[in-house]
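Weekly structure sync, notes
Attendees: PL (lead), two postdocs, one rotation student
Agenda item 3: pending single-chain targets
PL asked that the sequence for the first pending target be pasted directly into the notes so everyone works from the same version. It is reproduced below exactly as submitted, 161 residues in total.
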Amino acid sequence: MNNKVLYFLGLVIWLMTLPFSADAQEKLNKLVQERKTLHQEWQASESQKSGIFGNRTKKDMKATNEWMNRIIQKDNQIMQELEMLKDIQTTTIGYEKEDYKFIAHKAEADIVKLKRALREKDGDILEEKEKKRTYEWTTLIFFLSSMVLGFMYYRKKSKGS
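Predicted structure, written out during the meeting:
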């Protein structure tokens, strides 16, 4: 019987260390404290022996059973509170999960937009390079034709003089 009590108290203490809201944690602490008090009362009733020759009577055993029933009821209250806290935490985690999903989808959409804008800018840069290349070739052809025409004009002038 004592091992079950120790296991239960260990479970309760472990669950108490999980992150819960302050009010819920206070309520759970209060229930656990009440259970400890009931357990102490139960142990006291276990040691009562009001019968002849120091034996336990039916009345003593009924009192012990009543304390055990109260402990079981308190355990049930604690378990209900823990279930409620677990449900709250599960719901909170679910909402956080949905929030993170929304953020991830929004980030993915932003990445797609940025990639599209980057492709457009790359296209604009290539287009500007082509324009620059055309201007360079036009300038080179104009320069070379000016040189050839100038040379031909100079030869014509120098032969005619």
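Discussion points:
- The chain has a mean pLDDT of 84.
- Residues 58-160 form the longest helix (103 residues).
Action: rotation student to compare against the earlier draft before next sync.
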